[in-house]
Amino acid sequence: MSEVIDRLIVADTGAGHSSQEATEAKRVVSTVYNMLATSWDLVQMWNWGYDDPKLHQEIEEIIPGYNRFGSDGLCEQLYYYTLRQVPRKLSDYRGKRVLEVGSGIGGGLNFLSRVLDGAELRGVDLSKTAVARANARHARGKTLSYTVGDAEDIPFDDGSFDVVINLESCHNYPHLDRFLAEVARVLKPGGHFSMVDLFNDLHTVNFNQAKSTNTQLEWLSETDISPQVSKAVRQRMAPGSHLRETFAKQKAPLLHRIIGEPCWTAAFGALFTGDASTSAVAKFARKIGGLSSLDKAPIRSYRHYLATRVS
Length: 311
Fold this sequence. Notes:
Pfam family, one: Methyltransf_11
Organism: Goodfellowiella coeruleoviolacea
CATH superfamily of the domain at 53-229 and 299-309: Vaccinia Virus protein VP39
Keywords: Methyltransferase, Transferase
Protein name: Methyltransferase domain-containing protein
GO molecular function, one term: S-adenosylmethionine-dependent methyltransferase activity
C-alpha cells in the first residue's frame, strides 16, 4: 500500500494515469481514510492549520471559546480562511448552498455550519467510513449532511451550489481536470470555488495544466499562504502543544513512539517547516508508515486558489 501512496504524490496522479491506475489509487486512498476515520478520536485535527491573530479574533467574536474544547483552533482557522476568500458577507449565506469536496470526518464543515446561519451545507467524500462517522456525529437535517462520492464524479445535480470548497485534498485525485470540470458543473453561474492545498513540484505543474484546460472556471486569485500554515505547524510541533500532549497521553511503548513520531509529525507538516528529523531512522519510519513520498517529493508551498463559474 505504501508504494501506491508514493506513486500518488511522487508521480502526481493528475498527470493522466490509466483508468486502472486511477482506480487503484482511489482504492488505496479510500482504504487509508477508512482506517483513519475509525481512530480519529486520537486527535481532532483535519489539516495542517492556519494561524493569524486577526482571523482568530474574528472567529472568537462569532463563536466564543471555539478553540478551548478538544481543539487548538488552527484547523478551524484554515476552514474559515478558505470560506472568507469568497467575496460574500457571512450574513449573505442564508438560503445558499455550500459543498465541501473531500469532507473527511466532517469536523470542518460542522464548524462552518456554526458560522453560516441559515446556509445548507453538504459534504462529499470517497471514504464510506468517514461519511458514516460524519453523519452520525454532525448531520442536522437539511442544514448539514454528508454523502459518499467521488471528487471526479460529484453526486449532485448541475448548478446545485453557490460555493464549493476543497481543503488539503486534491493532491489525492487521479485526474485534476475531471475534478475541476465537476466543480464547475455543480456550481451555479457566478458561484465561487475556494480551495487550499499543499504543493510539490509535480502537483504544481499538473494543477496549473488542469486549470489552463478548464474553460468554465475563471481564476480570480492565487495566494501563497505558506507563512500562516508554517506558523500553525510550528505551534503544533512545539513542546507542550495540544498535539504533542495528545500523543503523549497515549503512553505508547518506546518502539511505537520511535516509529510513530516521525510519521505523525510529517503528517502534520513538520517536514515542510524543517521541524522533522531527517535521520535514517526517521526516514525508515516514514517509509514503513506510508509517508516516504514526503521525503522523496518535498512540499514546496501551501496555496489558496479562488475561481468563479462563468455564465
